[in-house]
Design brief:
About 70% of the residues lie in helices and about 0% in strands. The chain is built from 6 helices and no strands. It is globular.
Length: about 250
């Protein structure tokens, strides 16, 4: 004879299992929130460190540009050599990439020279013209040793950074001269983007801090790289007012 045995569960066991399941779900939720908040904290911390790094660079340039002449003269060749080495490095990397991928511009001799000469001449002229106006104002193109006044004459009456535009033209001239597609289409544009980003994040905030409202007004009226021809001021002429800063 077979007996069916009914098993009755203890109410206290059921209660304990419910409490345990609830604690498990609560612990999983806390762990998820902890990981989510820690990820958000890491992201915010990274952004804060990034902002602090840029601010420290701007502060360093401002202190040097408004500091002692001996310090400015000491840093000037260092910054100039660093910028020149960056340009050389970009060109060498582009040539290495061309050799690795066996690529060259379809524009070969002598037409690549024909294309490079006007770019080289215009870029060199624009760069030299900009340096000349900086020298007349008593400064250099290096951010740590700038003129003591806002330069808005010559090419600076049309764009805020004609010197950088000249460097870009020279870089494209080298690309045509060396028949380098990597320099023309990859490394050159990448260098241009990085230079513009550096100017917007570092150099211009320092200029705004050092020259104040005059530079802000100049920035509103003057484009960065591409000139607006026939731009007239309220009195019909190009303004040449300057503001001086005190140096130690």
């Amino acid at each position: 004879m077979r007996l069916n045995v009914l098993h009755f569960s203890n109410p206290s066991d059921t209660l304990f299992r419910s409490l345990a399941d609830g604690e498990t779900r609560c612990a999983e939720k806390q762990r998820h929130n902890l990981f989510h908040n820690s990820g958000r904290f890491r992201l915010n911390t990274l952004q804060e460190h990034k902002g602090c790094g840029v601010k420290q660079i701007v502060d360093f340039i401002y202190r040097t540009a408004t500091g002692r002449k001996h310090t400015r003269m000491l840093y000037t060749p260092v910054f100039a050599a660093f910028f020149l080495l960056l340009i050389v490095l970009v060109i060498l990397l582009a040539l290495k990439a061309d050799a690795f991928f066996h690529r060259a511009l379809p524009l070969q001799y002598p037409w690549n020279y024909v294309a490079s000469v006007p770019l080289l001449a215009s870029g060199g002229f624009l760069w030299g013209w900009s340096v000349l106006h900086f020298a007349k104002a008593g400064g250099t193109p290096v951010p740590v040793n700038p003129p003591v006044k806002l330069v808005n004459s010559g090419p600076y009456a049309y764009v805020r950074n004609p010197m950088l535009a000249g460097v870009f033209l020279i870089l494209f001239a080298v690309a045509f001269f060396m028949a380098s597609p990597s320099l023309l289409f990859v490394f050159g544009p990448a260098f241009i983007c990085c230079s513009i980003l550096e100017f917007k994040l570092i150099e211009e905030p320092e200029l705004e801090r050092r020259l104040g409202e005059q530079y802000l007004d100049y920035k509103r009226k003057t484009p960065m790289l591409f000139p607006k021809f026939f731009r007239m001021h309220g009195n019909g002429t190009t303004s040449s007012k300057t503001s001086r800063i005190k140096r130690k």
